[in-house]
């Protein structure tokens, strides 16, 4: 049975770029532990010689001719951007 | 004349004979939505101005140029992008997002002449089985407003069940069309993976997600699937296979059809009422000339764990695009870039989404990848093989859609494992990628139950044939919920 600690949850949240409080970490640790324990059920199965399925249908590469095509107009793309200036996305200062 | 009682074919006849104009139908639809939606809470955004203009223009079209869905209203799940119409996937992180292009299915609806009347509530990013994970509001089940409509396409199913719209689109990743269709007593189809383009569907778990139709009758469902199917070069997972006319399969003839009934779908946890309703349904199908046999899909009990590992892993990757930079919600509280990302995502996502992102990140992280993710992919192969083997001997597989009817709002929201178990009978279908439909097959204490009919790859025709034969022989689809009574139109 996997034991998931508060510290592990904080580490995973960090990897997933989620800020969580200590209280939330404890709560999620309990829930994730219950969920991952339920998933241990899969260990009953011997899958040594089984190929993994990533996709149910045969996938093929979709290639197109190497030619330039017009993209979306810049002003259209900027419509959902919180702040923009001179045709560029404006983000908070990240370097001093 | 009550328009909400009419099927697509009947509405079309009224439009053709000019007894009804498209403008009048559209107006009546909005009137009914405004009367019923304060109770049901199915819609997040209405598209009244654009729809009214479109309807008036379309009334000028000659009858000969009108297809079978021309002028008919439809609601669209809020994870399918609609140009100029707010699309949020029921998340705060996309509040105010106005897409700059249409999903392929939306273009196809427009080509078919359908009128998009609004966007439908859902569980945030399609994660949930009850519609209680929407940031905006809880949709209610029209059959009993204290119960959930199911999820994640709960808004899509409830709007059709309440007669607000005759058609809607949902999306199904682990049962999200069929489970709410069963809870709301309507017809919900998850097509074969690849049958319908996913371009413009906000991704949750890409190797499972599939858009599909929700309607009140099987015929209407087949008509809508006709309209949205087909290969799309914008979606690399779209299958380049022929699309038959699904309505041509509705012959009512199922003589000699072979049905497999998996013993695992009648296991502990499935209510007696659900089991009995399916047994009764099998008698109906037998009377129509089909035969059935008990079969085994031996890896079914592993489907839930497999699904939650794989879907959460895909979700953790897909949802990394929501960073507050190019669109969507942006935090006000940030010092460093890292804080900016972390605060934006923590404030923008709800608990269930965070839980699945973390579960997926955990399953994909170094040290656990083989134990969880790779293992689950291998078990997925075994589950797929169960179906392949069954379809060597049977035309369809039949069982209950859900273990129980709709549960009360708030009853299991704090218990993720019990909530996840709601999709136990629908998830194997998504893992294998085969098509399946849910049709109404009974009631338990006044709440609808669903019959699930599963078909072989790209054999939606047989699924529809069986569903239609059952519908023709029974009256369940004619029942309407209490919210329906006394409402306008």
Topology at a glance:
The complex is a heterodimer of chains A (96) and B (489).
Chain A: H1 6-15, H2 22-39, H3 74-77, E1 84-85, E2 88-89
Antiparallel strand pairs in A: 1-2
Helix pairs in contact in A: 1-2
Chain B: H1 8-16, H2 22-40, E1 43-46, H3 48-58, E2 73-77, H4 104-111, E3 115-120, H5 154-161, E4 167-172, H6 178-184, E5 187-190, E6 210-215, H7 218-228, E7 258-262, H8 272-287, E8 291-295, H9 303-318, H10 337-348, H11 351-364, H12 369-393, E9 396-400, H13 416-420, H14 427-432, E10 436-444, E11 447-455, H15 460-473
Parallel strand pairs in B: 2-3, 2-4, 7-8, 7-9
Antiparallel strand pairs in B: 1-3, 4-6, 5-6, 5-10, 9-11, 10-11
Summarize this entry quickly.
The complex is a heterodimer of chains A (96) and B (489). Chain A contains three helices and two strands. Chain A is mostly helical.
* Sequence stretches where pLDDT stays below 50 over 5 or more residues of chain B: none
Q: In which order are the strands of the major sheet of chain A placed?
A: 1-2
Q: Strand-and-helix sequence of chain B, N→C?
A: HHEHEHEHEHEEHEHEHHHHEHHEEH
Q: What's the N-to-C terminus distance of chain A?
A: 47 Å
Shape of chain A: flat
Q: Roughly how much helix do the residues of chain A carry, as a percent range?
A: 25-40%
Can you walk me through this structure?
The complex is a heterodimer of chains A (96) and B (489). Chain A has 96 residues and is mainly alpha-helical. Chain A has 3 helices and 2 strands. In chain A, helix 1 (6-15) crosses helix 2. Chain A is flat and about 55 Å long. Chain A starts with 5 loop residues before the first helix and ends in a 7-residue tail after the last strand. Helices cover 37% and strands 13% of the residues of chain B. Chain B has helices spanning 8-16, 22-40, 48-58, 104-111, 154-161, 178-184, 218-228, 272-287, 303-318, 337-348, 351-364, 369-393, 416-420, 427-432, 460-473, and strands at 43-46, 73-77, 115-120, 167-172, 187-190, 210-215, 258-262, 291-295, 396-400, 436-444, 447-455. In chain B, strand 7 (258-262), helix 8 and strand 8 form a beta-alpha-beta unit. The longest helix of chain B has 25 residues, at 369-393. In chain B, 61% of the residues are buried. The interface between A and B is large, with 47 and 65 residues.
């Amino acid at each position: 049975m996997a034991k998931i600690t508060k510290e592990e949850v904080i580490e995973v949240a960090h990897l997933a770029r989620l800020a969580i409080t200590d209280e939330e970490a404890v709560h999620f640790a309990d829930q994730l532990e219950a969920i991952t324990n339920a998933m241990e059920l899969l260990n009953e199965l011997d899958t040594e010689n089984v190929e993994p399925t990533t996709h149910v249908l045969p996938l093929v590469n979709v290639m197109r001719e190497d030619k330039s095509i017009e993209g979306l107009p810049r002003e259209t793309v900027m419509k959902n951007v919180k702040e923009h200036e001179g045709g560029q996305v404006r983000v908070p200062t990240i370097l001093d | 004349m009550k328009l909400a009682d009419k099927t697509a074919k009947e509405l079309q006849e009224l439009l053709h004979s000019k007894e009804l104009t498209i403008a009048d139908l559209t107006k009546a639809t909005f009137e009914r939505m405004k009367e019923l939606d304060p109770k049901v809470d199915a819609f997040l955004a209405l598209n009244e101005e654009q729809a009214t203009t479109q309807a008036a223009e379309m009334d000028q079209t000659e009858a000969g140029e009108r297809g079978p869905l021309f002028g008919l209203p439809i609601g669209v799940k809020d994870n399918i992008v609609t140009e100029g119409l707010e699309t949020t996937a029921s998340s705060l992180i996309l509040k105010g997002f106005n897409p700059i292009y249409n999903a392929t299915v939306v273009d196809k609806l427009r080509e078919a002449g359908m009128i998009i009347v609004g966007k439908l509530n859902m569980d945030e990013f399609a994660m949930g089985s009850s519609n209680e994970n929407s940031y905006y509001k809880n949709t209610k089940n029209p059959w009993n407003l204290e119960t959930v409509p199911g999820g994640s396409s709960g808004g899509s199913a409830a709007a059709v069940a309440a007669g607000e719209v005759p058609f809607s689109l949902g999306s199904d990743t682990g049962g999200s069309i069929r489970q709410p269709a069963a809870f709301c007593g309507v017809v919900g189809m998850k097509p074969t993976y690849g049958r319908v383009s996913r371009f413009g569907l906000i991704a949750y778990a890409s190797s499972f997600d599939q858009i599909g139709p929700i309607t009140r009758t099987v015929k209407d469902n087949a008509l809508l699937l006709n309209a949205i199917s087909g290969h799309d070069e914008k979606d690399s997972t779209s299958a380049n296979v022929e699309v038959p006319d699904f309505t041509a399969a509705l012959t009512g003839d199922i003589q000699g059809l072979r049905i497999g009934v998996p013993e695992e779908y009648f296991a502990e946890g499935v209510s007696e009422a659900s089991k009995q309703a399916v047994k009764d349904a099998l008698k109906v199908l037998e009377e129509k000339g089909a035969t059935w046999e008990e079969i085994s899909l031996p890896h079914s009990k592993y489907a839930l764990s497999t699904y939650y590992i794989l879907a959460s892993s895909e979700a953790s990757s897909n949802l990394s695009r929501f960073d507050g930079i190019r669109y969507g919600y942006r935090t006000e509280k940030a010092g460093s870039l890292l804080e900016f990302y972390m605060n934006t995502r923590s404030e923008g996502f709800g608990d269930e989404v965070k839980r699945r992102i973390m579960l997926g990140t955990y399953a994909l992280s170094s040290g656990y990848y083989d134990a969880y993710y790779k293992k689950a992919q291998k078990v997925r192969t075994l589950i797929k093989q169960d179906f392949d083997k069954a379809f060597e001997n049977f035309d369809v597989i039949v069982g209950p859609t859900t273990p129980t009817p709709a549960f009360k709002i708030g009853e299991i929201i704090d218990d993720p494992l019990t909530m996840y178990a709601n999709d136990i009978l629908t998830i194997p279908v998504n893992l294998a990628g085969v098509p399946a439909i849910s049709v109404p097959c009974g009631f338990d204490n006044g709440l609808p139950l669903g019959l699930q009919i599963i078909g072989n790859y790209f054999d939606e025709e047989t699924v529809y044939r069986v569903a239609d034969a059952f519908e023709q022989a029974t009256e369940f689809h004619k029942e309407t919920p209490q919210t329906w009574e006394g409402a306008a139109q």
